[in-house]
Amino acid sequence: MHKFLSCVLIATCLAVPACERAEKLAKGFPTPPPEVVTPTKPLSNIEFKPDPELLKQIESIAAEAKGKVGVAAVELESGRSVSLNGDQRFPMQSVYKLPIAMAMLYTVDAEKFALDEQIGVTPVDMVGPDQHSPIRDKFPNGTALTVSELIRSAVSESDGTASDVLMRLIGGADEIQLYLSAIGVKDLAVISTEKELASDPQAQYLNFITPNSAVTLLRSLHEGNGISAENRELLLKLMVDTGTGAKRLKGLLPPANVVAHKTGTSSTKDGITAATNDIGIITMPNGRHIVIAVLVSDSPADEKTREAVIAKIAKAACDRWSN
Predict the structure, then answer these.
(1) Which of 39, 67, 157, 188 could join 213 via S-S bond, C-beta 3.0 to 4.6 A?
(2) Distance of alpha carbon 141 from alpha carbon 168, whole angstroms
(3) Annotated active-site positions, please?
């Protein structure tokens, strides 16, 4: 279903010889127009400049979580950067709805779907009662929503039903991984659906991300890699408008800092919370941008403390790199 991503990757490899053959075709048999897709491209070159002083501050803040904390952040205009456990894997939880939304918008750019296209959502599509889903709560007997509404619900409201429907429309986890590979994102795995996460607590560890791969994903979005300019602006607005995680990345930042972000949170079992996450793009008042991921895993601290760790790290980065 919808295996066009595979075709795009293969077509890229064959592009040069195909052009050579096209010159030899009889003019009476025109070559069919190419499939409309948003091209992928390498990320811009950044000379990363590690900031050891900021790293010391972050290590001190991270200790408050009493668990595993991963951080990666880059001030894009200067290359100033920091990484703590940057290549280690963390469970994503709902952070994975961001790459799902990006892959879905790629299918829109490829004209496989339209943003205003109506999609049926049946009771079979609904996630369980213990999972977050305003769609299920409002339409328990099913409904029809546009692709745009599904993306908004998944990103801005972190709706599990919307996320699973989008995965189905894209063609499943394999298609999403092909998209991520095409835009150069590694060490990020989208495997389990929301329903699967509910049925197996260990499944959350299959949907993993590293802080460094989160930064690569955010840089791809910022640069419009694999997503059209129009849909990039749509997604960033949805990330700014999100109602989740008010006390995380943007918790201690003044309103002049615009934060486009996506959170992820697990349940707490035996006093341990597997995931308290937030990743995003911070636009500072001076017009500079920080892409940042703060992931807190396997922490015995309460929610207030975990969220405060994320907020303090974001503020430390913004304060440090504001000039």
Answers:
(1) 188
(2) 19
(3) 94, 194
